[in-house]
Write a structure and sequence with these properties.
Rossmann fold; two-stranded parallel ribbon; alpha/beta; about 280 residues
Length: about 280
């Protein structure tokens, strides 16, 4: 069993000082679980947890792109709690801009955090999970890891990559008793669309007025998103407790509907292209 029933579970949550990460850490502490929470600012994390009992919290200031720092954080968590039952790779940020407007530095920075950071955590925690024969790694993707919108090319590229990494990982570690889940949220009422969490392309072009309009629409969205972060936190715990749950789980009615439409359109495209696809085989 990957999730303990005889003691508080020990969680390692990245990107914990805001958004879904903060909502999850808050809920875990309130239910009595043990939580190692990584952040770039422990002060901001603790401010977000004002009024919450933090006796079971290990706040860690970590740069996830620094493998040595990540390894140290995993070691400190294990020393404090004895083991790690659940890892939630949640750290990341949004980015809006046309593909043509996206600089090589922007690409590097996004993949360093979203993929490099997640990879560092996975490499560091897997040896102990394999040895224990249990554990659960949860990758926080997005509905934009399933389908793409104009202006979200870089963010989608990173989330698509995270999904590919996680799907391979799930197959690799299944025989060790370690589970992997990919969570695909839609729009939740967090600060994800605010200036601190949403980067914009610097070198914009007049060729993409539609993307400028789309950016303005997203910047006006905060407060109107359909998803409730507190309910998302509860759902993440439900996912972690599953022994035979699905590899992928959408969160939010918007995410579920968009994923269903993507699945239908993808199947239709595959069927429409079947004859041409088969025609490229050798005739034997």
């Amino acid at each position: 069993m990957s999730y303990p029933t005889d003691r508080p579970a020990a969680w390692f949550v990245t990107g914990a000082s805001r958004g879904l990460g903060l909502a999850l850490v808050t809920h875990l502490l309130e239910r009595g679980d043990q939580v190692a929470a990584t952040t770039r600012s422990a002060e901001r994390l603790l401010a977000g947890l004002a009024g919450v009992d933090t006796s079971n919290l290990l706040a860690l200031e970590v740069s996830l792109t620094d493998e040595a720092q990540v390894t140290h954080a995993i070691s400190e968590t294990t020393k404090r709690f004895g083991r790690i039952d659940v890892v939630v790779n949640n750290a990341g940020y949004g980015y809006l801009g046309a593909v043509e407007e996206t600089s090589s530095a922007d690409v590097q920075a996004m993949f360093d955090v979203q993929i490099g950071g997640s990879w560092n955590v996975i490499r560091s925690v897997l040896p102990q999970m394999r040895a224990a024969g249990s554990g659960h790694i949860v990758s926080i993707s997005s509905i934009l890891g399933v389908l793409s919108f104009p202006g979200w090319g870089l963010y989608c590229a990173a989330k698509f990559a995270l999904e590919g990494l996680s799907e391979s990982l799930a197959a690799e570690v299944a025989d060790f008793g370690v589970r992997v889940s990919i969570v695909e949220p839609g729009y939740f009422n967090t600060d994800f669309l605010t200036d601190d969490s949403l980067a914009l392309a610097d070198d914009v072009s007049d060729a993409y007025p539609g993307i400028r309009e789309m950016i303005q629409a997203h910047q006006a969205m905060p407060g109107s998103q359909p998803g409730d972060p507190a309910k998302a936190a509860e759902a993440l715990i439900t996912i972690a407790q599953r022994e035979d749950g699905p590899l992928r789980q959408q969160l939010g009615s918007d995410s579920s509907s968009l994923a269903e439409g993507k699945a239908d359109s993808l199947k239709a495209e595959i069927l429409a292209g079947r004859v041409l696809a088969h025609s490229t085989d050798y005739v034997r």
